[in-house]
Amino acid sequence: MRLRRTLPYPGRLLVSLGEDVSPATIIAETTLQPEEPIHFTVTEAFGIPPYDIKTVLRVQEGDIISQGQVLATGIISGQGVELRSPVSGIIEQVSMLLGTVSLRLEGDPNDRDRIVDVAKDLEMIPLLAAQYIQVRVGDFVYMGQEMASDSDKEARSLAPMQGEITAINGSLITITRPFIRTQVSAFVSGRITTLIPGWGAEVESEMVPVSGLFGLGGECFGVLHILTKHPAEQADPLLVTADHKGGVLVVGALASSDLLTRCRHFGVAGVIAGGAHNKHLVDLLGEEITPGMDTKETLGLSLMLMGGMGEIPIEEHIFDLLRKSEGSMVSLTGLTQIRSGVIRPCVYLLADPSLPIRDEPSRQGNDSITIGSVVRIIREPYFGVRGRVTGFAENDMLPSGIRTLTYIVLNESGDELRIPRSNVELI
Amino acid sequence: MKYLLVDVGSTTTKAILCEVGEETAQFIALADAPTTVEAPFEDVQIGLENALRRIGEQLSNRVDVNDTPGMSLVREFKTSDLDGLFITSSAGGGLQMLVIGLVRSMTGESAERAALGAGGVILDILAQDDHRQPFERIERIRHLKPDMILLAGGVEGGAVLDVAVLAEMLFHAAPQSRFDSMRKLPLIYAGNSDLHPFLKERAEGFELCLAENLRPSLSQENFGPVRRVIQEQFMEHVMAHAPGYAALKDRVDAPIMPTPMAVTRSLRLLADNRGENILAVDIGGATTDIFSIVRDDMHRSVSANLGMSYSALNVLKEAGVANIMRWLPSEIDELALRDWLHNKMLRPTTLPHTVSALKVEQALAREALRLAFQQHLVLAAELRGNKPIGDWRRGADTFFGNRQRFGISDVDLIIGSGGVISHAPKDVQSALMLIDAFLPAGYTELLLDRHFSLPHIGVLSQVHPEHALKLLLNQSLVPLGASIAPRGVSGSGDRITRVTVEPIKGASKSYWIPGKCVSRIPLPADGAAITVEGVWSLDFGRGFWRNLHRDTVRGTAGLFVDLRGRPLPWSRAVTESQRLSSTWYQDLSGEED
After folding, report:
1. Residues of chain A with pLDDT under 50
2. A102 vs B contacts (CB less than 8 Å)
3. Mutate which: A309, A340, A363, A407, vs B, most B CBs within 10 A
4. What is the phi-psi region of residue A309: left when phi exceeds 0, alpha when psi lies from -120 to 50, beta otherwise?
5. Which residues of A touch B346 (CB under 8 A)?
6. What is the rounded CA–CA span in Å between residue B250 and residue A119?
7. B426-432: which pairs have CB atoms within 8 A and are 24 or more residues apart?
8. DSSP code per residue over A345-358
């Protein structure tokens, strides 16, 4: 299995070709900032029309530049003039219509604060200058925004960069920039097989993916613990203890509200269950789960549900697979997208060559169901029941009054059930 | 004359073989097959061939169908039996458009209306005031892979630079086409014509099409030219590159049309024929489309997140759990309801097995339709920035912020379509869903598009409008009945008013209508005349205390006399609302006076 792991913006690679990686290994990182780039009106500085920007520009789109680097050169009143960048970053756009250069900031998360002395700008003593400050702690200021001014002297103090005002001591204003370091980890154990310069790498792994139906939260990894003996059981919330911190738990047929709360309390990284109640998840998230979603909503852990909503036993062969991986390191992603490019949650387990690898049942579709096929019912009132197809009935009437093609399914208790074709999936 | 009409939908290819003569118009055979536009098939002809094979099976004694591949079946149909092949398409998600306007509520809204009317599925609307940073817009454009981009902005002689900035942002983003990343994306510009030279010079990365300004002045919208350009581009640049369409294009007898555009043509045909105001709804798994033709103004809205499966949880979020539960019996608790809806989102093709599950789906449909209609009224609003002169009422309304162009009382006819309505086990259920969702006022006829054939009829109407109309009236639309909802407040007695039904053949019958509920009166198959007796407190459409008479009312569901009042008298407590809704429906088919 190969996984492509890349950054959202270019950065630097921290691994080399052929290197063995663990899920926690950082592959690449960037200090380019995700918020809006800074715009410089270059042509205004040289007094030329916007469409002539390229005649003075010394950089182009995609260039990585450092603080103090020359952005443009030109001649004003017979004098050669250079325009230098006050910050480091990457040139994102050059507009010939507006005459601007857009620069995505690069910032060191360890060096976020800048202290501005307003007194210096206003040319007065600090005690007096403090009275002219127009911003407050908690305000967000943009580069060039006025922070203090003295109209009598026509003196102003402008913010040298954007950020939040975190302290004001006399005439000293501290601006904290929201710099973050974005990193991408290997996520799975394996070996680096391809480097993508500036962006990331491809990891080849022996791990095997097992998909679920619905999930929440992002990526995590940890030691796998199984809290139930049987896939149809429900784990007692009290079984979750501080020992499970950072681990991934298999909790049986239902991830109850109490259990998830306890998992969150003890710092469990991920939970795998047959089902959960939508109401419990909504209560824990504090908002409704929306459709077509890219589940960035987080429970404080990653969750993967194998069967859907409600109390649903985990499929036995999946449970066996999980049991074989108990105690080993697994990787789990709860990311789910229902529409426009379906993404399902997935757990990556260490491959066991003795285990047969099966396709996921629902991917095969219902066209291949014939008499004798073993199926699982995927809608109430028999949700989760397994059985064997013994016949078909055309234009059969359901208790709801709907007429459709039904399968006659003989369940494990020996009852004959008539189930609409679309309400079963092949196992 | 025999026609083969095909709608290549996003999931299903629906084929109808029909015959139209001097006296008759009928569907001879209907068949569905899964659409095969996506991998692994990537050829729309395979799905079409499967649908035709099923039609062939139904007519095996009339048409000789071989197991020959590709277009041979169509060819065979054509040479042997057919007078025309007509196709509409919404495969692969339909005509996906990115719309860019200058001000969201002005040219943005106008461009949205133009694109929706041309059958587009709008991926996003960008505008100068869309509360996004420029880099977010660029990322959004790059993320989306539209089939076509519509750029508008500026009235004639108005803003230029701001529109140019938006255009530059688009050039910088350099979006790619869905099907072929090497192909130039069609960019339709329908804004201030002063920008044409700039675009001609700079838009080399796009297939630029210049259309007349869709908002030439603040008080005017001009959709005809831009819709024609969208249709041309759809054929030339979208359909021609979609898998399997190139071969199909040469076989059809009229240009392939986006499905929603074909629906609007059908509705226009019906509106012109009957001279009535029409509201039509198509509720799907992910989206709900509403079309209206009121006083000759056509509007279409697509509620992208209101639907019966993929969007079930969004309906729950938008409507609130209490508003869905109020339609359900008290035995269904919130925990189960939420799980049902979530599972429906995860497994969209499953069917309601039990009566309770069916009730949940129909409750969801009522709320989805209600919300979609609210959104439709917002979209079909007076132009922002326009000051109506000479009409003091419209002027006053606009001044006080009411931009609504029409209300439900203006609608004479409601057409329902979509799985939950068209395939409801009983027609009465379909009718009640439409009544509860739209709350029609006065006398309103209810129709059902049982076979989802409005697109088929619409595409046929391009070439044979008379035949299309015959099919529409005789085969496509099934009369459900009518709703009568008076203005005013009814008492709560058992005998509020009396309705007399006079069948064409047989004796007339009278029914006493109780107050505060919806009463259903059965109608004979060939229709009947009805008379509703006037009551001092109720206006059935002709004034208080005056009778309402209709010469012919037909419908499989019956006549619904709705004396619940408007708006519906819900309680704040869910349990009380559930109790109320459980007492609202009275079936008078067994009672007569």
Report:
1. 292, 357-365
2. 134-135
3. A309
4. beta
5. 213-214, 308-309, 338
6. 78
7. B426/A401, B426/B557, B427/B478, B427/B480, B427/B555, B427/B556, B427/B557, B428/B520, B428/B557, B428/B558, B429/B362, B430/B480, B430/B557, B431/B480, B431/B481, B431/B483, B431/B555, B431/B557, B431/B558, B431/B560, B432/B518, B432/B560, B432/B585
8. -EEEE---TTSPP-
CB B165 to CB A97 under 8 A? Answer: yes
For CA atoms A40, A46, A50, A53, give the dihedral sign.
Answer: negative
The answer to whether A357 touches A208, Cβ cutoff 8 Å, is yes
CA–CA min distance B121, chain A (Å): 13
Q: B311–A401: do the CB atoms touch at under 8 Å? A: no
Q: B26-32 long-range CB contacts below 8 Å, 24 or more apart?
A: B26/B471, B26/B474, B26/B475, B27/B451, B27/B453, B27/B471, B27/B475, B28/B2, B28/B59, B29/B55, B29/B58, B29/B59, B30/B55, B30/B451, B31/B55, B31/B58
Number of residues that this document lists for chain B: 593
Provide the residue type at B530 as one letter. I
Closest by alpha carbon to B388, among B379, B380, B397, B400?
Answer: B397
Q: Which structure tokens are listed for B220? A: 């005017």
Are the beta carbons of A71 and A85 closer than 8 angstroms? Answer: yes
Quote the pLDDT of residue B371: 95
- Cβ-defined contacts of B522-525 (< 8 Å, 24+): B522/B558, B522/B588, B522/B589, B523/B481, B523/B553, B523/B554, B523/B555, B523/B558, B523/B559, B525/B554
Nearest-10 Cα torsion for A161, A164, A170, A172: -30
The residues facing B207 across adjacent strands are B186
DSSP string, B169-227: HHHHH----SS-TTSPEEEEE-S-GGGHHHHHHH-TTEEEEE---S-SBTTB---HHHH
- Phi then psi for residue A262, to 5 deg, are -65, -40
The SS3 of residue B346 is: helix
Could A282 and B338 be called an inter-chain contact, meaning their C-beta atoms sit closer than 8 Å? yes
User: Would you state the structure tokens that stand for residue B392, as one six-digit string?
Assistant: 């003091």
Q: Which residues touch B252 (CB under 8 Å, ≥6 apart)?
A: B85, B86, B87
For strand B206-210 and strand B185-189, is the pairing parallel, antiparallel, or unpaired? Answer: parallel
Residues of B with CB under 8 A from a CB of A: 133-136, 138, 161, 164-165, 168, 172, 286, 305, 310-314, 316-317, 334-335, 338-343, 345-347, 349-355, 357-358, 423, 425-426
**pLDDT grade for B65, boundaries at 50, 70 and 90:** very low
Contacts of A383 in chain B (CB under 8 A): 343
Predicted-complex ipTM score: 0.82
Tens of pLDDT, residue by residue over B331-377, are: 999 999 999 999 998 888 899 999 999 999 999 999 999 999 998 99
Q: In angstroms, what separates the C-alpha of A102 from chain B's closest C-alpha? A: 9
Question: Is B305 within 8 Å of A292 when comparing Cβ atoms?
Answer: yes
Give the range among A189-203, B306-320, B406-420, B577-591 with minimum mean pLDDT. Answer: B577-591
List Cβ neighbours of A291 (8 Å cut-off, separation of 6 or more): A338, A339, B286, B305, B310, B311, B312, B313, B314, B345
pLDDT digit string, tens, across residues A68-89: 899 999 888 888 888 888 788 8
The structure tokens listed for B117 are: 């009317």
B409 to chain A nearest CA, in Å? 33
The span from the CA of B459 to the CA of A281, in Å, is: 47
The reply to whether A341 touches chain B by the CB within 8 Å rule is no
Q: Which two tokens stand for residue B245?
A: 């369409």
Separation in Å, CA of A335 to nearest CA in chain B? 14
Q: How far apart are the first and last CA of chain B?
A: 49
Angstrom distance (rounded) from CA B222 to CA B224: 6
